[in-house]
Design brief:
Layout: H1 9-17, H2 29-68, H3 70-78, E1 79-82, E2 85-89, E3 122-123, H4 125-131, E4 150-155, E5 159-167, E6 170-181, E7 186-191, E8 196-202, E9 205-211, E10 214-219, E11 226-228, E12 236-242, E13 245-251, H5 255-263
Parallel strand pairs: 2-7
Antiparallel strand pairs: 1-2, 3-4, 4-5, 5-6, 6-13, 7-10, 8-9, 9-12, 10-11, 12-13
Amino acid sequence: MNEQLPLDPLDARLRTVAPGFAYPPTPDMAGAVGRRLAAARPQRARVRLRLAGVVLALVLAVLATLFLVPEARAWVQNIFHIGSVEIVRVTPAPTPPVPATPGPTAIPPTAVPTWAPDLAGETTLANAQATASIPIRLPTYPPGLGPPDRVFVQDIGGPAVILVWLVPGHPDQPRLSLHALTAGMIARKMVDPSTTIQETTVNGQYAVWVSGPHMLQYRSARQDDQLRPEQLVPGNTLIWTQGTITYRLETSATITEAVKIAESVR
């Protein structure tokens, strides 16, 4: 049995007067915190912008320093890469004196090699289409071009196909050559300062137009470098990629005609 104890006089008086007092308003703590966070965001954004500016300035300073160093500037300007082809601009060394005893003479990068009828791996178009491990696509332009007159299938650190069209009535004069290179190899194209390198497109894809003499040096993990005079058609070379295949079109035609030929390859 609970017994109700009498209230203290002070407690009783507080209970009587308390309803007459207004309860103070509760402070908006969540709103105050939100406003402080919102005010801090622009400051954080300004800090990030300043850091980005510092990083950009450092990058520009490094690039500027590189371009002040002749070796670095030459490296940036002289190396160009598209697909399996690496273009390097070289300055020919002075011609050494002729030795008293004749010996093998290296072909300088500026030499323009002629048609090489003994190019390795010659076969027929039908056999190449049946046995080559890469697709053999042919141009349909210009009209009446027809199939290639000479076909070569090679393994230069990876499968490669070379198609050659000859000048009608002149079996020793190549008119057009199309090289198909796979991604497993690298063809280093060495050009001299007189050679022009121009950017263009083939079927909307990036391409490079090289006008002037050059030499090729094939590189791979499976064999040593090979320096070969494979500019079969003196004049110009259009380089582009289609999937994993890199194409080199050698022609004496203009860049406009060369692009039309490249875009007709099917």
